[in-house]
Specification:
By secondary structure, the chain is an alpha/beta fold. Helices cover 31% and strands 19% of the residues. The chain has helices at 19-33, 55-65, 81-93, 104-107, 153-156, 171-181, 197-207, 242-252, 266-276, and strands at 2-9, 37-43, 75-76, 97-100, 129-132, 138-143, 147-152, 160-163, 186-190, 213-217, 219-221, 287-289. The structure holds glutamic acid.
């Protein structure tokens, strides 16, 4: 295996895989396998209240039916709380994070940018959210598909939550720790997470972790502009449509898969994808309308 490339797919079991997740999974899989790299699977089960019963199993079964083969054991974020807690404690003790007791109501009208009310308040950590202090700086990176992306953390995000008030750890912290722990060199995922990347770059810098390369694929949206997503209750991927849907996903990624692959077995489609993968063909767009892909 080419150990200089390790990719991953990291689904959240708050719903089933849908066509948009298939496009993201396929892109990360092909980008890794085309260079003989590793491809790991991580279940982002950080939020039990939002988990749909049976979704974890359904996700694994769908990936298998669609021909995806991952390396090593599946990792689960639900088993990593001790690590997240240790890092949170360290950031608190270094004064890099602080307890916040602001209610949702108090934060209304700030357009999602935390106004810093609790920054110097020295609240107790119990029953409080924990926020990380962000610098008044621009964070930027060059996405392999979307190009230059900038975000001023102070002005556009503000101090952000790494542990929620209910004690659950936030995606931003867990993803950064786990990508580093699993040795991920290349993150390939949906463009809905472009906006999260500067926060993750900042955490990597703060914690002395390596920075992976990033590639964000277009998000698949419905005709009414809604993203295909778990909250929208998109239909799960049908087991008997693996061939046609993999073909459609390849084309959504700009890969000119021949129509006669339509009736091929999933593995055959994936093998074609690996042999012909060209990431420079992925549309440089944040969204793609599902209807245009049929
Ligand atoms: N768990 C996230 C999701 O399902 C993806 C996280 C990531 O790829 O960084 O949307």
């Amino acid at each position: 295996m080419n150990s200089s490339y390790v990719g991953r797919f990291a689904p959240t079991p708050s719903g089933y895989l849908h066509f948009g997740s298939l496009v993201a999974a396929l892109a990360s899989y092909l980008d890794a396998r085309a260079v003989g790299g590793g491809w790991l699977l991580r279940m982002e089960d950080l939020d039990p209240p939002r988990e749909v019963p049976g979704a974890q199993d359904a996700i694994l079964r769908t990936l298998e039916t669609y021909g995806f083969e991952w390396d090593g054991e599946l990792e689960r974020q639900s088993e990593r709380h001790a690590q997240y807690a240790a890092v949170t404690e360290r950031l608190l003790s270094q004064g890099l994070a602080y307890a916040c007791v602001c209610s949702r109501k108090q934060l209304e009208g700030y357009a999602g940018v935390y106004p810093g009310f609790c920054r110097n308040a020295c609240h107790a950590e119990q029953n409080a959210a924990i926020r990380i202090r962000v610098p008044e700086l621009d964070y930027h990176f060059t996405d392999r598909v979307q190009g230059e992306f900038h975000q001023h953390l102070g002005r556009e995000v503000g101090d952000f939550v790494i542990r929620r008030r209910d004690g659950l750890f936030a995606y931003q912290l867990a993803v950064v720790l786990d990508d580093a722990w699993q040795g991920i060199t290349n993150v390939v995922r949906g463009a809905d997470l472009l906006d999260s990347t500067p926060r993750q770059l900042y955490l990597q810098e703060l914690l002395g972790l390596p920075q992976p390369r990033y590639l964000h694929v277009p998000l698949i949206i419905q005709p009414d502009g809604h993203k295909l997503g778990k909250s929208y209750r998109s239909p799960p991927l049908p087991a008997d449509q693996a061939g046609p849907l993999l073909l459609r996903a390849l084309r959504a990624l700009g890969q000119p898969a021949p129509a006669d692959l339509r009736d091929a077995a999933p593995r055959q489609l994936l093998e074609w994808g690996i042999a012909h993968w060209d990431a420079t063909r992925i549309p440089r767009s944040r969204t793609l309308a599902e209807a245009q892909l049929r």
